[in-house]
Specification:
Elements (H helix, E strand, L loop, with lengths): L20 H23 L9 H7 L4 H18 L11 H11 L2 H13 L5 E7 L5 E7 L14 E7 L6 H4 L3 H8 L5 H11 L1
Antiparallel strand pairs: 1-2, 1-3
């Protein structure tokens, strides 16, 4: 069965003023839709058809069309889910404990994540991953790569990601990537990130 473009879990303008409606319309309706369509084209009629997106990324990322478009499909699906109009604040519970254990404080964690996102040259993503046992780690990856692929970044399961391709922020922030990264904290859906942490560790 072909992959389908997932619906946004909120309205296009729900994340304003931090992420504007026009950017969301283009980002979801054009970019994510394009990755979805091209992924389906890349696997149609092959032995990859019918496999999960995780399987494709872990075992078939040597195929460039699957790597780029499968990564784009998966990464954006996660991105929409880990944001919310009711987001922001700080994590709690096991996730907060894991962050404090790994980075000393939430503020230090935010600083490390922002640095990973700001210093990713060109297009790419910054990630928070969870490893077996519950350790969290921050890393970044180029293009539409992600840590599910062999030898990319953290090597764990991504639970939080920020898109630092210019199409994710340029209409509102132009070349001010650090401002976009700072605004992102206002929309992070920590409940969703915590669920992903619990299932990934």
């Amino acid at each position: 069965m072909a992959f389908e473009l997932p619906d946004l879990p909120y309205a296009h303008d729900a994340l304003e003023p931090h992420i504007d409606a026009r950017t969301m319309e283009i980002h979801h309706g054009k970019h994510h839709a394009g990755y979805t369509s091209k992924l389906n084209g890349a696997i149609e009629g092959t032995d990859m058809e019918g496999k999960s997106i995780e399987d494709l990324l872990k075992n078939h990322s040597d195929n460039n069309a699957v790597r780029n478009n499968g990564g784009g499909y998966y990464n954006h699906d996660l991105f929409w889910q880990v944001m919310s109009p009711n987001g922001g604040g700080e994590p709690s519970g096991d996730l907060a404990n894991a962050i404090n254990e790994a980075y000393g404080s939430f503020d230090k964690f935010k600083e490390e994540f922002a640095n990973a996102a700001a210093t990713r040259f060109g297009s790419g993503w910054a990630w928070v991953c969870v490893h077996q046992g519950g350790k969290v780690e921050i890393c970044s990856s180029p293009n539409q790569d992600n840590p599910l692929m062999p030898n990319v970044g953290c090597g764990g399961t991504p639970i939080l990601g920020i898109d630092v391709w210019e199409h994710a922020y340029y209409l509102n922030y132009q070349n001010r990537r650090p401002d976009y990264i700072s605004a992102f904290w206002n929309v992070v859906n920590w409940d969703e990130v915590s669920k992903r942490y619990a299932s990934g560790k």
